[in-house]
Automatic annotation (TrEMBL):
This is Histidine-type phosphatase. It comes from Erwinia psidii. It comes from the Bacteria. GO terms for cellular component: outer membrane-bounded periplasmic space. The keyword Lyase does not apply. Keywords: Hydrolase, Signal. One of its GO terms (molecular function) is sugar-phosphatase activity. The keyword Signal applies. Residues 1-22 form the signal peptide. Belongs to the histidine acid phosphatase family.
Length: 419
């Protein structure tokens, strides 16, 4: 009995020693792609939803398409939480950043540049961190110009047909309960509401991207309702007074996921739309370990502020799927971000952790300070070979880089990073 107890004690000590060793991970680098924060509908979307519903939608205090003050604060809260974590993990030091600490690149639109400023203000208060943006078109975020080849356009069309389950018309019939729920929320009794009687039709645009006429309008309505709720608009103005809670809003969002399934989450458009950005992400994760040409600055936190479509393309190339909280599958809320972290253990082995994080509907609406007790929604990416650790789900460095790079079209457009 004594020998058995002694053996058991030695086994426990050995296992605890292994566990203690496994807990020693160092966060070396973060590459993050964030969606902009809460905004009113864009001018194009406003025209679409108002003509499709036959009624005026609420005006906002902020110009259409631009980041709101509420959206700024929600993004600020997210970045404060995030940067506090990075300081606890010794990725960032206290105070203002040095040249090797952070680089922020935003899509040229106001809502992305203003969101980038909110993120920088929270992470580095009083430091006036430079927000970099490239003119009116940035190859990192914009879909490449030029027509798609006939073969590429046909491949994208077939992918869209498959995603729709045979045809948009059949899909429209299958989704009548979801369509009816949205119609009840936005249409006036006994008055025209043309978007809900429009047959869904697949369109392949000249550049190869996909649109679903009819569905695109309904998805824009669902997105606008989500934005109204997230902005803390009076409930009398959210979905014209037809919602009372986040649960009610969530029930009106499924068509937004369907729109992404049928258009933005297709491999063909995603490959053409995200190859430049994904190539830069891969090179950034290798900085400091492998010398790369045409690479981003070698900084601890590389932050891109972009759009939901950029994140949709990236996640499609990865094969990453999520469903968070009350949101429908694949939803990309305002301020949500796709994060790539590079970790090192004490044996000098490297790993990559990939996850998507977002604030919930009520966290956005109520401007909830994020903390360990009130964390954002987080979904980690994993595949065979990844492991659960005290640092999260860590995946083998080289295998993950292969997965990141496997669908990239080699970029022909150089990307510059002004200091």
């Amino acid at each position: 009995m004594r020998e058995f107890s002694k053996g058991l004690l030695l086994l426990i000590l050995a296992l605890s020693g292994q566990l203690a060793y496994a807990q020693h991970y160092t966060l070396e680098k973060v590459v993050e792609v964030s969606r902009h924060g809460v905004r009113p509908p864009s001018p194009d979307n406003r025209q679409m939803i108002e003509s499709g519903s036959g009624r005026r939608w609420a005006d906002w205090l902020t110009a259409d398409g631009e980041l709101t003050g509420h959206g700024y604060t929600a993004a600020w809260l997210k970045s404060r939480y995030e940067s506090q974590r990075y300081r606890q993990l010794d990725l960032l030091k206290q105070g203002c950043p040095g040249s090797g600490d952070v680089y922020i690149r935003a899509s040229p639109l106001q809502r992305t540049r203003a969101t980038a400023k909110a993120l920088a203000d929270a992470a580095f208060p009083g430091c006036e961190v430079t927000i970099h943006a490239e003119g009116q078109a940035d190859p990192l975020f914009q879909y490449p110009e030029g027509k798609a080849t006939p073969d590429a356009a046909e491949i994208n069309r077939q992918q869209a047909i498959q995603a729709a389950g045979g045809s948009p018309a059949k899909q429209q019939q299958r989704l009548q309960p979801q369509i009816a729920a949205l119609k009840q929320a936005v249409c006036q009794p006994e008055k025209p509401c043309p978007a809900f009687s429009q047959p869904w039709q697949l369109m392949v645009w000249s550049n190869g991207t996909i649109g679903i006429q009819g569905l695109d309008t309904l998805a824009a309505m669902a997105e606008t309702i989500r934005l109204e709720y997230s902005e803390n608009q009076p409930l009398s103005q959210v979905a014209f007074g037809h919602v009372r809670s986040a649960e009610d809003v969530a029930r009106l969002l499924p068509l937004l996921s369907v729109k992404y399934d049928d258009s933005n989450d297709l491999p063909g458009p995603a490959q053409r739309g995200a190859s430049v950005l994904m190539d830069q992400i891969a090179k950034a994760l290798q900085q400091g370990l492998t010398l790369r040409q045409n690479a981003p600055p070698d900084v601890r936190w590389l932050l891109y502020v972009a759009h939901d479509i950029n994140i949709a393309w990236l996640r499609t190339l990865l094969g990453f799927h999520w469903q968070q909280g009350l949101y429908p599958p694949g939803n990309i809320p305002p301020g949500g971000s796709l994060v790539f972290e590079r970790w090192r253990n004490d044996r000098q082995q490297h790993f990559i952790r990939i996850y998507f994080q977002a604030q919930s509907l009520d966290q956005l609406r109520r401007l909830t300070p994020l903390s360990e007790r009130q964390p954002p929604l987080v979904t980690e990416f994993h595949f065979p070979g990844c492991q659960q650790t005290t640092a999260g789900t860590l995946c083998p460095y080289h295998l993950t880089l292969q997965r990141i790079r496997q669908h990239i079209i080699p970029p022909t457009v150089p990307v510059s990073y002004p200091p």
